[in-house]
Structures are given as structure tokens and as C-alpha cells.
């Protein structure tokens, strides 16, 4: 309990630090939203007028506290250019990105975990080497190239077996769940294969370490076969490590899938962030970055707590340390 | 670490026979495990593919049943997306393109030859001195919300533009007041005659809004045009629905038009191939190649436009390019033919600041023909050679790609210019080049029509200050006949081109691809003026092919 509270306090402190860094970093960028709105045929007076209207002339400290004050009450502000609330903007984009990464992660797990286990269990060194090569190839495929390859294979109107939509998200969004899921399959496969390969390597490494450890010897001397020992004892012991890896992979995928979103013309979070930065829609960008950072930290927090639940040994260690301190 | 496994498994250093025999079991089971997981993966993939094949077939049959029909939805793929719908405040031709003439209408309209045509006003008169315009409006006009559109709305819209200094207000500074004489007559009074006035009113300055309607301009649009905005997703798509109450005779032929903004070129091509969009504009010439050869299914055509790829020099005194010889050398050294050819050959050479669709156009490409020897000579006079090059920077926005910068660098190298190419974000370009004038050479697609004034304004980022040009320009603007105006502009344009304050790389012509069965889609000027009322898509024609 104490651990959770301490982590929560740290979480809040980190968020505060992030808000300062994000705010400051964005003000260093050259260019501003007023000149974007005014365009390349407007006189300087028009830019000045817009800056005044949008409150861009106000002191930075005042702008920061306005933003922070609103954030505390749960108001993420309104995007200057689109006129929509940042919460709504992120909501629409997240309704594409989250299903995409969840689907991608499920595919990655379906590929990575069994193959990782299989790589450890395989007896013949040749088969093991083959798994090794597979993991390296899968992990080193650039997302763009992998995606293009999949489009050339399965893209509707383009591919050899052209059955899947290769770009765009249905206009009705999740109003048409069938076509929405369909449009996510190819991008999710692209992400899934690449992330799956790295997951496979993690699984193999974690499980491989354990397979040579005393735990497995012990289990086997209790009468388990090696396969049983690795799957029941080894996997259980590797679980905390794998949960960390999967959790952090999930968090980093939110912006990591940006290339994929671009390739498949999906208006997701990463894609939107790039557009907003390009337009210098700073209120939107700073709230988006803040939320992303909060999400990342949140996933870290959950992973840490899960870690302790899955590995009771950590509890006793920290208890001892707390007594020492 | 995993290499250790074999040792452990093989060691079997136990005396217990039953344990030893169990220890061997994994040897048999071993291959099974990875085989099972591999099979599982393959099966999973097969199921996914199978399901989608089945699903895909279903879609096809749905399409087939719709044969012999005029589609009630046409989907159009464009490139540059608007971030909001606020045509009063937000710059960018993406808004003009989709909203003007379709959703909002102006007091006068523009045809695809860039000429002024009747709009909300069916006719107009200009006083002899050019200081008063009287517009006669059509009768029984309404906005899409049912409100009446009369002279009051027209006068209010334009007066409001001037009072609030909305976007493009600076284009009609000559206007002193706009009055509603009666329900369908509007009088416009000018301080000085302006030969560009009518054309300017075909754009944002002449748009008419409902003075009684309250709505969020950024996300909604209430106009009088043949279409209404049914749905807008910023940076992504706009859905237009036909305005069933449209007052005019050009009623929308297709009930729903969806505009999708496809920033990625490959995604755009895939969208067209898969039938998700029926039109793609623009498409690069190289990507259009496969569609050209598939002429049974697609029509590919390049249209005229006013896009000028301007290689603008910093003409301000103190700049490295204040020396006219260097500017001239650059113009002689650029091989325009080669650049146009490498882009696919659709673009047109342009020798001066006025494109062919604008008043005062003259072919000026002969002024600076490609002549490397002459360029070298001029550079030598200025004190530079290939071994002692002049260092210049070229700054442009990343939307134009890196090829142009590379081509220019290699074309200018032999004459003794070491070009440093900075490809930056558009907002950085706006800050450094446009606002702060901190650049040597800049490259922009100045796509606006009638933007010749930028050469008569020394504070514009080119910093070009020529009293003779300014005088001619002002005389042209004040001219009361088009002929007189065109002559003055042409004379000024020639002076400018001779002075070489910039090089005009080419007049970009937009290439458009339409699927067979699409009719009425305009090819000329379609990045700024895109009337959609006439667009139809007949599926029968497509499926017969």
C-alpha cells in the first residue's frame, strides 16, 4: 500500500515536471499559429491582429498558469485552429490508434510468445538457429517496407490477393464495426509482425535464462519433464519480466505506430500530433503531449504494481529495505 | 543462454531409471511444441485471410447489384486538408477550393478560365469613373437554413469583412462602403478605381454570409450554395450533401459528395485503385503513369492553373543577391526544360511573374534562356568561379520534396554557386523567410491568382523595390478598362523579369485522374475553384469496361 502511495506521489511530481518541459520546449519552436492562419498573402498587421486575438502576446508565465489551472480542473483546452476541445480531438484519434495497437499487440503476442517458447524448447540446434534468424529478420524489417509489402500482397485493388482495404478509416468510424475492423487488419498485422519478433526475442531470452537455472533442475528432479518444467515453472517465473516488456511496448506503440498510420492514411494520435505541431497549434500539442506522457507514466505505474503482484519476492525485499531505512 | 539447454537435458545424470526415461520424453515432445505453435500461427493467419476473403466477396456483390445506376455518392481524393472551416479567418486555398461556389457563394463567381461570371448578382454596372459598382441580385435566394438572402446580407458581409479585417480584407482596401439600395440592389463605392475589384470579389472578399445565423464558423458552414457541409473531420474529410432548397439553376446532380484528404501519395493511389475514391487531384505525373496506360478505366488530364513555383531571391540591399549579375547568372544557369521533364513534363515554362490565366500575361521565357556559358561569365565578373564558389542558402518548406533542391544545387554548382539547401517545416519557413526575411533564396508555390501586387510591395519578402514597376502597377490597378490594365501589367512584368529578382521555375499544372464514369469534374484551376454541382459517377459505364 505504502509502495502504491509513494509511486502515486512520484507520478504527480513527474507530471508537473513534464508540463513545464513540454510548455517550454514548444515555445522554442520557430513560427506560430497566427502566421499559419494569415497565410502568405497577408500583411504583417493581420498577423499582429490575430496574435492579439488569440492571446499569443500575453506573458508566457500567464499562458502557462492558464493552461495548468485548466488542466487541474480537467479542461485540456480548445485547439486554436480546429476550434474543437482537445479531449474530443484526442478521443476521435484514440478511437483509431487504441484499437490498432491493441490488435497489433494481440497479434504480436500470438506470434511472439509461442515462437519464443518454441525457440527455447526446440532440441535441435538447427531449429533453434532458424528461430533466431526468424526473430532477427522480423525485428529488423522497417515498418514502412513491411507495410508496403503487405499492401502489395493483400491490399484491395492493389495486391495479389486484394481483399483488405489498404488505406483510410471508414467515414462512419465505429458506426460500421465490420469495415472499421477490416481497415485495421493490415496495419495491425504490420505492427504485430514487427513487435512480435521483438517479443519473441524477449521471451526466448527470459525463458532461456531460466531454462538453465536451478528452478528448472529442481522442477525436473521433482518429476516434471523439461517441457513441463519450462512451461509451468519457467514461464511463471518469466511472467513479471514479460509483463514489463509488454506494458512498455504497448505504451510506446501509441506514437510508435505513427509511420504505419501515415502509410495506411489512418487519422490516429501520432498522425494528428505531427499535423498539430506543423500548424503550431500549441494549446492542442501541449495538452496532447501531456496526456501521452501521463498515459506512459500510468502504464509504468500499473506495470510496477503488477510486477509486485506477480512476484511476491519483491515485496519482502522492499519490506526489508524499508526496515533498513 | 539457451544454448545450455541441451547440456542439461542430455546430461540425465540420475540413477533413477524412471526419471531417466521421463527425461528422454521431451526429446520426442520437443519438436512437437514448436511445430504446434508454428501451425497455430499459420492457422490463425489462414483464418484471418479466409474471413476477409469472404467479407471482401460480399462487398463485391453489393457493388454489382448497384450496376446501371448513377451513384448517389462520389468520393473525391484531394491532398491539402483544411484544419477548420473558418473561411473568414484561416488562410489556405484548401478552404476556397471546397467551400467557395459549393457551400458559400459570392456576389460574383469565377469560371474555370479564371474569368468573372454572374454569382448571387445576375448583372452589374460600373460607373464611368470606376468609383461606383451597382449589383443586381437574383430574386428569391435563400440560405441552406431557410433564411432569405437579400441585399442586406450582401452589404453586411462585405462591410463586416472590412470592419473586422478578416482574411483578404486587404484586397479590397479601395472599397469605402457597401449599401443595400433595395432588397435586390447593392451599391459599392470606391475611394479609387480598382480594375481587379470584380475578380477579387469572386474570392473570399465577395462571399455572402447569413447575418442572422449563429453558428461556429470553425466546424460548421451555413451558405447559399448547392451543397451543405454534413460532416467535417479536420485534416481528414468533408461530407457534402446536396442542398435540396437551392435557389439557383445549377442544382447538385449527386446527392452526396465525400472529399477525402490523402496526404500520403501512395495511400492516395491505393485509394483510387481500390475504388475508395473516384477522383484524385492532384497526383504526381510519375504516379499517374500507370493510370495513363490503363485508359479503359481511367482518364488522366493536366489542367491549367495559376501555381507559380517561385525561386525568390532576397533583393534587399546588403543581401548577397543584391548584385544583379548573380541573379541573372542563376536565371541563365537553371535548365527549366530539364526540371519540367524530370517532373513528368506536364508543367509549363514560365518566364515572369504573371501566369497565363492572369491579366497581363506575356510569354517571357525567351528573356533568360538556358545558357551556362553566359552564366559563368556573369559569375566571373562578380568574382566567383567553380573553384571559388559563392555560398548561398536555399530555404523551402518540406511539402515540395527534396528533389527540386538537389536539382538546383547541381545545376548551380558549375557556375560557381555552392547552394546549401534547407528543407524546413512550413511554419519555420513562414517565420524565417516570410516574416524575418532571413534567407538568400526561397522556393514557394505561389498558387494564388492575381498576386502580382507582391512585386509592387517592397516590404514583401522578396524585398523587390522598383519605382517604375510600382508606378506601372498602380496605373494598371487604377485603369478603367481591362485592355489598359493588361498593357500596364504586361509592361511591369517584363521589367521585373529583366531585373531577375526571382526565377520562375515553372507554372505547375495539376494532374487529375478520374475513374471512367465520372463526369463533370473540372480539370482547370481545380485546386482553387472546384465547382462540384455538375459531378456525377455512373457505375454502369464503369462496369461495362
From TrEMBL, chain A:
The organism's place on the tree of life at top rank: Bacteria
Transmembrane segments: 96-121, 133-155, 180-200, 245-269, 289-306
Main location: membrane
Compartments, as annotated in UniProt: Cell membrane
GO MF terms held by the record: dipeptide transmembrane transporter activity
Topology within the bilayer: Multi-pass membrane protein
Family annotation (Pfam families): BPD_transp_1, BPD_transp_1_N
Protein name, UniProt field: ABC transporter permease
High-level lineage: Bacteria, Bacillati, Actinomycetota, Actinomycetes, Bifidobacteriales
From TrEMBL, chain B:
Solute-binding protein family domain segment(s): 116-449
GO molecular function, one term: peptide transmembrane transporter activity
Pfam families according to UniProt: SBP_bac_5 (PF00496)
GO CC, any one term: ATP-binding cassette (ABC) transporter complex
GO BP, sorted A to Z: peptide transport
Segments crossing the lipid bilayer: 33-55
Record-linked InterPro entries: Peptide/Ni-bd, SBP_5, SBP_5_dom
Keywords assigned: Membrane, Transmembrane, Transmembrane helix
SUPFAM superfamilies: Periplasmic binding protein-like II
Region (Disordered): 1-27
Coiled-coil features, chain-numbered ranges: none
Entry superkingdom: Bacteria
PANTHER family: PERIPLASMIC BINDING COMPONENT OF ABC TRANSPORTER
Protein name (Swiss-Prot/TrEMBL): ABC transporter substrate-binding protein
The organism of origin for this protein: Bifidobacterium cebidarum
Organism ancestry: Bacteria, Bacillati, Actinomycetota, Actinomycetes, Bifidobacteriales
Amino acid at each position: 500500500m505504502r509502495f502504491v502511495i509513494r509511486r502515486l506521489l512520484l507520478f504527480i511530481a513527474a507530471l508537473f515536471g513534464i508540463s513545464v518541459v513540454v510548455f517550454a520546449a514548444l515555445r522554442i519552436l520557430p513560427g506560430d499559429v497566427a502566421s499559419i492562419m494569415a497565410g502568405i498573402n497577408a500583411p504583417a498587421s493581420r498577423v499582429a491582429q490575430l496574435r492579439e486575438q488569440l492571446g499569443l502576446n500575453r506573458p508566457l508565465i500567464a499562458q502557462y498558469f492558464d493552461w495548468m489551472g485548466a488542466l487541474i480542473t480537467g479542461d485540456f483546452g480548445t485547439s486554436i485552429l480546429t476550434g474543437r476541445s482537445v479531449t474530443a480531438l484526442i478521443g476521435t484519434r484514440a478511437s483509431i490508434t487504441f484499437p490498432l495497437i491493441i490488435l497489433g499487440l494481440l497479434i504480436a503476442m500470438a506470434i511472439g510468445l509461442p515462437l519464443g517458447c518454441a525457440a527455447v524448447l526446440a532440441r535441435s540446434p538447427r531449429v533453434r538457429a532458424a528461430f533466431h534468424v526468424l526473430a532477427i529478420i522480423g525485428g529488423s524489417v522497417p515498418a514502412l517496407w513491411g507495410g508496403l509489402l503487405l499492401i502489395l500482397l493483400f491490399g484491395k485493388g492493389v495486391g495479389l490477393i486484394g481483399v483488405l482495404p489498404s488505406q483510410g478509416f471508414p467515414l462512419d468510424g465505429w458506426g460500421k464495426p465490420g469495415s472499421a475492423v477490416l481497415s485495421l487488419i493490415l496495419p495491425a498485422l504490420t505492427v504485430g509482425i514487427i513487435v512480435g519478433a521483438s517479443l519473441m526475442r524477449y521471451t526466448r531470452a527470459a525463458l532461456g535464462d531460466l531454462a538453465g537455472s536451478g528452478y528448472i533442475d529442481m522442477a525436473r528432479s521433482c518429476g516434471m519433464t523439461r517441457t513441463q518444467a519450462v512451461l509451468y515453472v519457467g514461464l511463471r517465473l518469466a511472467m513479471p519480466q514479460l509483463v514489463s516488456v509488454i506494458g512498455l511496448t504497448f505504451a510506446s506503440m501509441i506514437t510508435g505506430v505513427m509511420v504505419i498510420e501515415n502509410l495506411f492514411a489512418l487519422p490516429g494520435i501520432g498522425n494528428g500530433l505531427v499535423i498539430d505541431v506543423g500548424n503550431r497549434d500549441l494549446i492542442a500539442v501541449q495538452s496532447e503531449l501531456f496526456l501521452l506522457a501521463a498515459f506512459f507514466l500510468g502504464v509504468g505505474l500499473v506495470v510496477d504494481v503488477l510486477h509486485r503482484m506477480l512476484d511476491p519476492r519483491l515485496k519482502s525485499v522492499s519490506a526489508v529495505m524499508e526496515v533498513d531505512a | 543462454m539457451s544454448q545450455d539447454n541441451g547440456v542439461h537435458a542430455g546430461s540425465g545424470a540420475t540413477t533413477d531409471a524412471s526419471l531417466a526415461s521421463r527425461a528422454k520424453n521431451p526429446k520426442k515432445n520437443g519438436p512437437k511444441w514448436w511445430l504446434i505453435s508454428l501451425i497455430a500461427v499459420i492457422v490463425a493467419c489462414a483464418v484471418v485471410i479466409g474471413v476477409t476473403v469472404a467479407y471482401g466477396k460480399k462487398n463485391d456483390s453489393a457493388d454489382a447489384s448497384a450496376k446501371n445506376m448513377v451513384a448517389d455518392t462520389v468520393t473525391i481524393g484531394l491532398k491539402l486538408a483544411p484544419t477548420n472551416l473558418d473561411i473568414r479567418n484561416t488562410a489556405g486555398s484548401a478552404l476556397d477550393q471546397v467551400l467557395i461556389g459549393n457551400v458559400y457563394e459570392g456576389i460574383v463567381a469565377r469560371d474555370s478560365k479564371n474569368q468573372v461570371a454572374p454569382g448571387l448578382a445576375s448583372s452589374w454596372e460600373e460607373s464611368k469613373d470606376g468609383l461606383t459598382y451597382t449589383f443586381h441580385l437574383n430574386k428569391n435566394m435563400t440560405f441552406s437554413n431557410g433564411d432569405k438572402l437579400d441585399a442586406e446580407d450582401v452589404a453586411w458581409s462585405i462591410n463586416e469583412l472590412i470592419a473586422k479585417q478578416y482574411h483578404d480584407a486587404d484586397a479590397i482596401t479601395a472599397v469605402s462602403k457597401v449599401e443595400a439600395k433595395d432588397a435586390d440592389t447593392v451599391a459599392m463605392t470606391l475611394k479609387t478605381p480598382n480594375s481587379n475589384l470584380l475578380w477579387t470579389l469572386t474570392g473570399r472578399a465577395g462571399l455572402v454570409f447569413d447575418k442572422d445565423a449563429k453558428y461556429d464558423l470553425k466546424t460548421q458552414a451555413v451558405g447559399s450554395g448547392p451543397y451543405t457541409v454534413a460532416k467535417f473531420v479536420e485534416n481528414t474529410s468533408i461530407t457534402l450533401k446536396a442542398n435540396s432548397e437551392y435557389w439557383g439553376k445549377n442544382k447538385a446532380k449527386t446527392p452526396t459528395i465525400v472529399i477525402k484528404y490523402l496526404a500520403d501519395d501512395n495511400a492516395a493511389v491505393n485509394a483510387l485503385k481500390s475504388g475508395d475514391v473516384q477522383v484524385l487531384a492532384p497526383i504526381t505525373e510519375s504516379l499517374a503513369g500507370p493510370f495513363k496506360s490503363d485508359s479503359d478505366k481511367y482518364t488522366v488530364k493536366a489542367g491549367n492553373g495559376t501555381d507559380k513555383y517561385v525561386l525568390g531571391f532576397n533583393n534587399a540591399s546588403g543581401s548577397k543577391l543584391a548584385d544583379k549579375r548573380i541573379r541573372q547568372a542563376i536565371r541563365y544557369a537553371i535548365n527549366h526544360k530539364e526540371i519540367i521533364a524530370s517532373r513528368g513534363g506536364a508543367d509549363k515554362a514560365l518566364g515572369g511573374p504573371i501566369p497565363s490565366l492572369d491579366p497581363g500575361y506575356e510569354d517571357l521565357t525567351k528573356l533568360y534562356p538556358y545558357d551556362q556559358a553566359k552564366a559563368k561569365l556573369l559569375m566571373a565578373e562578380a568574382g566567383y568561379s567553380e573553384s571559388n564558389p559563392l555560398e548561398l542558402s536555399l530555404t523551402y518548406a518540406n511539402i515540395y520534396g527534396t528533389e527540386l533542391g538537389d536539382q538546383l544545387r547541381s545545376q548551380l554548382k558549375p557556375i560557381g554557386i555552392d547552394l546549401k539547401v534547407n528543407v524546413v517545416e512550413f511554419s519555420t519557413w513562414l517565420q524565417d523567410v516570410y516574416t524575418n526575411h532571413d534567407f538568400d533564396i526561397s522556393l514557394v508555390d505561389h498558387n494564388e491568382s492575381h498576386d502580382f501586387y507582391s512585386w509592387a510591395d517592397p516590404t514583401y519578402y522578396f524585398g523587390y523595390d522598383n519605382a517604375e514597376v510600382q508606378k506601372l502597377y498602380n496605373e494598371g490597378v487604377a485603369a478603367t478598362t481591362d485592355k489598359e490594365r493588361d498593357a500596364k501589367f504586361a509592361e511591369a512584368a517584363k521589367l521585373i523579369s529583366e531585373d531577375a529578382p526571382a526565377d520562375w521555375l515553372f507554372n505547375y499544372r495539376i494532374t487529375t485522374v478520374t475513374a471512367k464514369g465520372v463526369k463533370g469534374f473540372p480539370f482547370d484551376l481545380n485546386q482553387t475553384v472546384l465547382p462540384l454541382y455538375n459531378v456525377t459517377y455512373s457505375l454502369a459505364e464503369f462496369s461495362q469496361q
